[in-house]
Specification:
The complex is a heterodimer. Chain A is an alpha+beta fold. Chain A has five helices and three strands; from the N terminus they run αβββαααα. In chain A, α2 packs across α5 and α4 crosses α5. The longest helix of chain B is centred in the C-terminal third of the chain and has 39 residues. At the A-B interface, α1, β2, β3 and α2 of A face α5, α11 and α12 of B.
Chain lengths: 161, 396
């Protein structure tokens, strides 16, 4: 298959960490079905601030599922501070790259991780420098990863893309 | 053994063996330029004349009314853009629909850029253009109306004869002449087409949708409609579309058209039966689906199904791994990352468009193929629904 590399295909076929953690220490959701992808991530954190388990559920395309799988793999065993340092680029590199048009799908994962940690921090009264300025409910251009799904009915030139 | 099941006949079709056999001599032996006066040139010319008759016969046209082009897209561009430019002294208003192929939508966009006004008619939830909407949109300045014969995504067959009638009545009242064009690329070989009975002025068709080769299409231009030429050069295609003819493509298109005409009844009956069988099985075995577009007045081979709570590109990839080829209306699979404009136009919620898959069966599809596909679908849909963050319980 030419569109994606073998790693992405393998993770789509056999994704790791699918599911929900029962009584998680933190839980976050990012994206929306309207935009075509929505990732929910739940984490378990021990007394040393180490993420001991992470699970995901994702509505989305192949690369969104593969990114979710690899991102959860990447945070298990890391401290919360380390996990917060994970960027889209890290997720992308770990996947071995995605087609240019699909890169936005990996943005979902790092944001969902942050959202889950934010929830953990809120519930446990913790603060992390990596969460500074982060608002899981922000709805600006940057955080909707380019989702622009208003009705695309051709009514005039400007609306035909 | 890896299976290979092709269910994307609306995208393109394999070339039939008889078609390929007919084409072969024109590559290496009968390669003469049809414009050349010596024997092999004249043989090429005769082969093109024969192919023109074959193609004309499939749509009820006179051979002289068929002009070969490189594709359906070229035929659409020629008809609509040249038509509008030609008639611009009469008016600058063009009417088309929201569910056209991009060949039409982008021709419309081009005309808008050139100062024309384009009305994109909506369709009803079943996917049909309402005659009343067309009537309301027609004006004295309207010069071109282009409404597709059958839709490529949901397969709905538009009431072309009725729509043409509405245009003729309106132009009578205005005292103008309006060109009626239809993109029949998907309809060809799947629907009885009789240009005379329809009363259209122009009709676009393509070879590779009817088991012919890619790179060859045609525009029917009704005798008496003096649509200007759009390629200037050596006088080919009765001086309206210059360029040395795609000889092998034309011969292949001709043969494919002949086969299509001979088998049309059987083809329609067989594909309808297979398509209905497939939809029935899917409905029986998989919950939370939605059939997009009317099942009445629809291309025989088309099934467009939304699998709720999951995304189409992921479905497509997992089916591909099982050797099954389909297409999706999901934004994630489009170059522009926008969801299908056709499914949007019939009112499918965006989150359900993402989970839509188009299955199109064809002459080489068997019932066994479809049984395999249904089994694969059951597995793939269950797998992705297990992964998904939305479910029947949570809803979208």
């Amino acid at each position: 298959m030419a569109l994606y590399n073998d790693k992405v295909i393998d993770l789509l076929t056999n994704p790791h960490n699918v599911g929900d953690i029962e009584s998680p220490d933190g839980e976050g959701t990012y994206g929306s079905p309207v935009c075509g992808d929505m990732m929910k991530i739940s984490i378990k954190v021990d007394e040393n601030d180490v993420i001991t388990d992470a699970k995901f559920r994702t509505f989305g395309c192949g690369s969104a599922i593969a990114s979710s799988s690899i991102a959860t793999d990447m945070i298990i065993g890391k401290t919360v501070d380390e996990a917060l340092k994970i960027t889209n680029k890290d997720v992308l590199d770990e996947l071995g790259g995605l087609p240019a048009i699909k890169i936005h799908c990996s943005v979902l994962a790092d944001h969902a991780i942050k959202s889950a940690i934010y929830d953990y921090a809120q519930k446990h009264g913790k603060t992390y420098s990596g969460l500074e300025g982060f608002d899981p409910n922000a709805d600006d251009e940057d955080t909707n990863h380019g989702c622009d799904m208003e009705l695309h009915l051709p009514k005039s030139l400007s609306e035909i893309k | 053994m890896t299976k290979s099941i092709y269910l994307d006949y609306s995208a393109t079709t394999p070339v039939k063996k008889e078609v390929l056999d007919a084409m072969i001599p024109y590559f290496t032996e009968l390669y003469g330029n049809p414009s050349s006066l010596y024997t092999i040139g004249q043989e090429s010319k005769n082969a093109i004349a024969a192919a023109r008759e074959q193609v004309a016969a499939l749509i009820g046209a006179q051979p002289a009314e068929v002009y070969f082009t490189s594709s359906g897209t070229e035929a659409d561009n020629w008809a609509v853009i040249e038509g509008a430019m030609w008639k611009r002294k009469q008016g600058r208003h063009v009417i088309t629909t929201q569910i056209e192929h991009h060949a039409l939508l982008h021709s419309g966009a081009y005309l808008e850029k050139e100062g024309f006004e384009v009305t994109y008619l909506p369709v009803d939830p079943d996917g049909f253009v309402r005659v009343a909407d067309l009537k309301a949109a027609l004006r004295p300045e309207t010069t071109v109306v282009s409404i597709m014969f059958a839709n490529n995504e949901i397969g709905t067959i538009e009431p072309i004869a009725e729509l043409v009638q509405a245009v003729r009545e309106a132009q009578e009242g205005f005292g103008t002449k309006i060109l009626f064009h239809t993109d029949a690329v998907q309809a060809l070989g799947n629907v009885h087409i009789d240009v005379k009975a329809l009363g259209v002025d122009m009709l676009s068709i393509s070879g590779h949708k009817i088991y012919g080769p890619k790179g060859i299409g045609a525009l029917y231009i009704r005798k008496g409609v003096n649509l200007p030429e759009h390629m200037h050069g050596g006088g080919q295609e009765a001086k309206r579309r210059a360029g040395t003819e795609n000889l092998t493509g034309i011969v292949g298109f001709g043969k494919a058209a002949e086969l299509s005409r001979e088998n049309l009844e059987t083809h329609i009956e067989q594909l309808t039966k297979l398509r209905n069988y497939f939809i029935d099985r899917v409905r029986e075995k998989i919950a939370d689906i939605r059939i997009n577009g009317s099942l009445e007045s629809r291309l025989p081979g088309n099934a467009n199904i939304t699998f709720k709570y999951i995304e189409g590109e992921a479905i497509l990839l997992l089916l591909d791994m099982k050797g099954i080829a389909v297409s999706t209306g999901s934004a994630c699979s489009s170059a522009s990352l926008t969801p299908s404009h056709v499914l949007t136009a019939i009112g499918v919620p965006v989150e359900e468009i993402h989970g839509s898959i188009r299955f199109t069966v064809g002459d080489f599809t068997t019932k066994e193929d479809l049984d395999y596909v249904v089994e694969a679908l059951i597995e793939v849909v269950a797998k992705l629904r297990n992964i998904s963050s939305v479910s029947a319980e949570s809803g979208f």
